[in-house]
Amino acid sequence: MALAFDEYGRPFIILKEQDQKTRLRGIEAQKANISAGKAVARILRTSLGPKGMDKILQSPDGDVTITNDGATILEQMDVDNQIAKLMVELSRSQDYEIGDGTTGVVVMAGALLEQAERLLERGIHPIRVAEGYEMASRIAVEHLEHISQKFDFGTTNIEPLVQTCMTTLSSKIVNRCKRHLAEISVKAVLSVADLERKDVNLDMIKVEGKVGGKLEDTELIYGITVDKDMSHPQMPKQIEDAKIAILTCPFEPPKPKTKHKVDIDTVEKFQTLRLQEQKYFDDMVQKCKDVGATLVICQWGFDDEANHLLMHRNLPAVRWVGGVELELIAIATGGRIVPRFQELTPEKLGKAGLVREKSFGTTKDKMLYIEHCANSRAVTIFIRGGNKMMIEETKRSIHDALCVARNLIRNNSIVYGGGSAEISCSIAVEAGADKYPGVEQYAIRAFADALDSVPMALAENSGLQPIETLSAVKSQQIKENYPHYGIDCNDVGTNDMRQQDVFETLIGKQQQILLATQVVKMILKIDDVISPSDY
Amino acid sequence: MAIERILKDDASEEKGERARMASFVGAIAITDLVKTTLGPKGMDKILQSTGRGQEVTVTNDGATILKSLHIDNPAAKVLIDISKVQDDEVGDGTTSVVVLAGELLREAEKLVAAKIHPMTIISGYRIAAECARNALLQRVVDNKENAEKFKSDLMKIAKTTLSSKILSQDKEHFAQLAVDAVMRLKGSTNLEAIQIIKKPGGSLKDSFLDEGFILDKKIGLGQPKRIENAKILVANTAMDTDKVKIYGARVRVDSMSKVAEIEGAEKEKMREKVQKIIAHGINCFVNRQLIYNFPEELFADAGVLAIEHADFDGIERLALVTGGEIASTFDNPESVKLGHCKLIEEIMIGEDKLIHFSGVEMGQACTIVLRGASHHMLDEAERSLHDALCVLSQTVNDTRVVLGGGWPEMVMAKAVDELARQTPGKKSHAIEAFSRSLVAIPTIIADNAGLDSADLVAQLRAEHHKEGCNAGIDVISGSVGDMAELGISESFKVKQAVLLSATEAAEMILRVDEIITCAPRKREDRM
């Protein structure tokens, strides 16, 4: 009861409007939370691995998304339960931090919760469970470091990177041409990467999609594409060795920000104003021409008159280019964004080898390609595909692959995939458990069991006998003391992941275990859920 | 402890078998809906919109039908989307792509019922699609070098495309129209340059291709109705009141006489503008925006033909046809490129007066005037013609051609069938199923024509057992015929797009094992 009494025995209310709230306490609250978390994990479980299935998500507006990306599924599921929301957050933070393994982290958390439930039933205090998990996760992370391998790659030897990206892509619908896409992703990342500082700015990679064509037509453009066309239909469609003026001021009459009025009360004023206006337009175009620009890219619109003057002076122009794109163009071409006509100088112009307009299909779709830029560090991945949902899903898959490549550049340690890392950790944690006296030992063992659930789900999704396969692999690992045996999802014939070239990044795996443990700890510590009841 | 609801109220979740069922049922329902429109004897559909006026559309264009449907089933939405993309990308084959995807799913359903994992089916389908594409690639004909032959290929394709539409009665005529129009584009795929004007009245046969350009406008009063050797200035400028564009400018006066003065100045300004325009040495002026009475009068006085309010497309096309540039300022008359044409005259089609520009410099654009008994007829005719134009313009770029009438499907089915026999493992069932789905297309064509499909398809299969056979279904005589002799051809690009996007869509739907539908967004009740 949320009712307390003061020293005179008078009741006072702690919770306002208590009768309108539902409340769960103690073990009941924990169990409800655990079951909610498990329910979320169960939804994602079937999406894990190369043979994982997709989900159709229909948004409130009736739009359809088809995906097997954990973070996307959870984000669009529109969950209502508080604990389920925590799981969504969990997947999202994995997405932000690592970009891949969003499904795995939720499955892992679900398994940990499942094990915790059993321990709670035995009467172990939730905090003790949480502490045990914490210790176990430390063992697992250390062990991962131990079994990880460094591998070398350079700008010439990109094969290892491609292989890792292929592992990521193989679980997506695009696995039909994973080789092609993996190569594109790696090349894109390498061209924007700063290998010295081991840093990659993914903002420099633009992922664009256009419906039509086939997936194989997806290409990497060393430059920028803009979904715009020339402002005047009769401007040239192709410009070589373009000098680009990047403007954020409109080709329109000036609009001072302060309020003002120009009063016209005589005929003379009317005429001078008119002359000034004409001169103004002329000046604007002339200034661009004077600095030697051969292409104008503008963030704002053009007046009809200015447009014709540009056309007339043989100065092609593009209008209404978005701010982000403008920035990318500036980076790629080495130009500066110029906010005022007066500040235009030849040094501030961007340079590009080729600018061309390309049209697609039977509709009037046109895009502008800016290629061979002075600074080739901004690139665009241009995706083609049979339908809208396919393009969206490909974008997400490419994003994952890009993230993986970036992580490898940051830290070139890898572990082997196919569940082998999890199995190996599970063995290590199991062995480590015996060293801890006290109740935590049970929790650590439970953690080992939970680690097994990832390979188990992989085997299940691949149509193998989960328990048989897992125990076979486990005994094989212990017997031969070789941590790279995993689940043979693709029926290749060997379960040595090293031979199959299935890699994952070390930091991705470590992050998965740490994040999952953290969230589970948080959920276990909750013993009171107060929520407004339905009205 | 019962599991609490994780999702919001009204949201639904379907899992495993049920989800798969739901998507199969949805996709197959869509397929059955458009199935009957396939082929030369396919039937049309009437679509009645729920909007104001309850407009009626009669069509057998797959994309148009599907676009107008309000569908709730997510799998069905995928199919509608591929049909739309097919329309945007190649223009034709919008029905075929849906039917093929539907048939693939129908076969997949049987395999799933026989306990084959969807992923196995998908990998089988992928191999099969690749094999089918290669089989087709081996049999394509490319007449790029031979202009004469290529033109006859185009003719054949146009006729084949049109034969399934409302224009089939006059397909010779329209095929010729379409081919002529596309040849004028000289390889560009910009169909904007071909203008289609619809005028009710007359019969379909009276439709014609005009080499010049027809603008659906009237000539201003008191201006010449016929100009020879016209010099045209195409413009986009304000000819109503030429406002001062500097922000915040306003007129403030203190007496009536000043108003009159400023009005006079305004008029003077307009007069000057008109003078400048006339100084270009033109005798025809076409503006995108309105022309007020005053400048119009000035133009009339100068003997210049002024046309107001031509829409944007019209202006662009006119500029394209006459070779002029679209002007907005008029200070340098010497450097503005003017458009030229031999003759401008007012012509009558039906009851309407139109302006006809003939003897133009650049023959890139042209106009097709469609005549017909009713609006519905004209709309459908336009759609059909559009399909034909799309296909032709794509074929000009990718000149590979295959035969039609179910021939490509049979060729692919044969190759896929052989592959199935060589493939070990469960995949071979899926590959076999792919071949069955391909055969379903000639079957449907035959069924729609009221023929004995089982018999015909069996005959066809036997014929195709021979090497280099050209047999397909001849719907007119109701038997198996030589497609090369009958002159039935299709564009390879269309067939390839059908094959690939249908497989892609089927794959996507097969991979799904769960459908989560969010609660529909609550609409506020607006009165």
Structural class of chain A: alpha+beta
Distance between the termini of chain A: 21 Å
Task: Provide the helix percentage of chain B.
Answer: 40-55%
The main β sheet of chain A shows up as: 7 strands, mixed
Q: Say how many strands of chain A there are.
A: 22
Q: Give start-end ranges of low-pLDDT stretches of chain A.
A: none
Overall mean confidence score, pLDDT of chain B? 80
What is the quaternary state of this protein?
Answer: heterodimer
Radius of gyration of chain B: 29 Å
Beta strands of chain B, count: 20
Helix run count of chain A? 16
Percent strand of chain B: 15-25%
**Greatest contact between two chains:** A-B, 86 and 85 residues
In this structure, how is the largest beta sheet of chain B organized? 7 strands, mixed
Mean pLDDT of chain A: 83
| Terminus-to-terminus distance of chain B | 45 Å
Global outline of chain B: elongated
Provide the low-confidence segments of chain B as ranges. Answer: none
What does this structure look like?
The complex is a heterodimer of chains A (535) and B (527). Chain A is of the alpha+beta class and 535 residues long. Chain A has 16 helices and 22 strands. Chain A has helices at residues 26-45, 70-77, 82-97, 102-121, 126-147, 159-169, 178-192, 267-290, 304-312, 323-333, 388-410, 420-433, 440-461, 466-480, 497-500, 506-525; strands at 3-5, 11-13, 21-25, 54-58, 64-67, 149-150, 193-194, 199-200, 205-211, 219-221, 223-226, 238-247, 262-264, 295-298, 317-318, 337-338, 350-359, 366-373, 379-385, 413-416, 503-505, 528-532. In chain A, strand 1 (3-5) and strand 2 (11-13) form a beta hairpin. In chain A, helix 8 crosses helix 9 (304-312). The longest helix of chain A is centred in the middle third of the chain and has 24 residues, at 267-290. Chain A starts with a strand and ends with a strand. In chain B, 50% of the residues are buried. In chain B, the strands form six sheets. In chain B, strands 7, 8, 10, 11, 12, 13 and 14 form a seven-stranded mixed β-sheet that branches. A three-stranded antiparallel β-sheet of chain B has the order 4-16-19. In chain B, strands 5-15-6 form a three-stranded mixed β-sheet. The mean pLDDT of chain B is 80. With 527 residues, chain B is an alpha+beta fold. Chain B is built from 16 helices and 20 strands. Chain B starts with 11 loop residues before the first strand and ends in a 10-residue tail after the last strand. Chain B has helices at 16-35, 62-67, 74-89, 94-113, 118-138, 147-163, 171-185, 256-278, 293-302, 312-322, 375-397, 407-422, 427-448, 453-464, 483-486, 492-510; strands at 12-15, 45-48, 56-59, 141-142, 194-200, 208-210, 213-215, 226-235, 249-251, 284-287, 305-307, 326-327, 339-349, 352-360, 366-372, 400-403, 471-474, 479-482, 489-491, 512-517. The chains are: A alpha+beta (535), B alpha+beta (527). At the A-B interface, helix 1, strand 4, helix 2, strand 13 and helix 8 of A face helix 3, helix 5, strand 9, helix 8 and strand 12 of B. Strand 13 of chain A pairs parallel with strand 9 of chain B.
